[in-house]
Amino acid sequence: MVGAGAIISDYGVVGDWAIIGEGAVVRGEIPDGVIAVGVPAKIVRQVGEEHKKEWRHYQQLYDELAAERYPKGLKRIR
Fold first, then answer.
1. Residue 77 falls within a domain, yes or no?
2. What's the confidence (pLDDT) of residue 38?
3. Residue 76 within any structural domain of the chain
4. How many CB atoms lie within 10 A of CB 20?
5. pTM assigned to the model
6. 1 lies in a domain?
7. What percentage of the chain exceeds 70 in pLDDT?
């Protein structure tokens, strides 16, 4: 997840389950499962199970709302 206004440079890499804070600048590699904030982005803690549970909950909620709003799905743009 990448926060609003965050910048990932051309050579920046963000790992799975990583969270990048708002306004952070990623100039290198952010490993899997960490929270990084600041300029340049620095790791401040590990992503816990509570973060993953909340993330999955909101992803499911988004999917349900999208299915309700667009019951036929989205039209592919070519």
1. no
2. 95
3. no
4. 22
5. 0.73
6. no
7. 100
User: DSSP 3-state assignment of 7?
Assistant: strand
Indicate the helix (H) or strand (E) that contains 46. Answer: strand 42-46
Domain enclosing residue 37, as ranges = 7-69
Q: Into how many domains does the chain fold? A: 1
Asked if residue 31 belongs to a domain, the reply is: yes
* pLDDT beyond 90 at 73: no
DSSP string, 23-50: T-EE-SEE-TTEEEETTTTEEEEEPPHH
Cα separation, 50 vs 32, whole angstroms: 16
Provide the b/e sequence for 42-53 (b: ≥16 CB within 10 Å): eeeeebeeebee
pLDDT for residue 34: 96
CATH code of the domain containing 20: 2.160.10.10
> At residue 75, what is the residue type?
K
